[in-house]
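Thread: Newbie trying to understand structure tokens

Hi all, I'm a second-year student working on a class project, and my supervisor (Dr. K.) asked me to get a predicted structure for one chain before our next meeting. I've only ever worked with sequences, so writing a 3D structure as a token string is new to me. If someone could post the tokens and maybe explain what I'm looking at, I'd be very grateful. Here's the chain:
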Amino acid sequence: MPKGMLLNEENMKLTTLLLAASLFTLSALQLSAGTRIDNVVMDVDSRGRASAEITNISDQRMGYVLTPYEWKIDEGEDIFSETKQFMALPPTFQLGPGETITVRVGFRNPTPAKVERTFRLSVREVPNETAEQGLTFAYNHMLPVYVAPTGGRQPSNIEWSLILREGSWYVRAENKGNSRAVLKSLSVDGKQVATSSKATILAQSWREYAVPSSAESNGRSELAYEFLGGMRGSLTVDAK
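---
Reply by user tm_fold:
Sure, no problem. This is what the structure looks like when written as tokens:
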């Protein structure tokens, strides 16, 4: 696997269920027909540690491979790069039907930075190759791992704008704060805008969301938004 990779359509098929987990504060989530993960969003403590429980809820023995990634957003897109900044133990394991294991994350240098440090832990399923069915689905669950910034997380600071590109309008949300902001809903001129896998806006980065053609308003629109944690509001934005 390359050191850095753009989250493309193929990877999206593998991580759709995980990315949806970023929208909600769930203590546990069944991410596929075969795996249940407790603590799907890993907030690292002051000692540089975090943990999650993984359960095989299928009727087949399942193998797993763990790989740490650094997570950044560049030009609105997710970039994952393999990293040695933290370890996940055990790195590989197998679970029989109904078995559970605790996966532990430990950072080599837990010292926080001025902005939240962001990572992903890939939990890749390795199905039993002797499965009787001819087609077996394997999932790659990219669990978010967050290290809080120095002084704690500040209230979200989002700057909104409209962007016209190649004849289509986009809403841009730029996070000028020191930690992530997670969109729950967004509408433009009363029309719901799909945020899906781009709901999480990392600190000092931006996301863009396609505006439905029925909501375009010649460079000025009314936005209504709600973020995880309760921040909500509405405003008028003009095109840049």
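A couple of things are worth pointing out once you decode it. The chain has two domains: 4-147, 158-238. The domain at 4-147 is CATH 2.60.40.10 (Immunoglobulin-like). Feel free to ask follow-ups in this thread.
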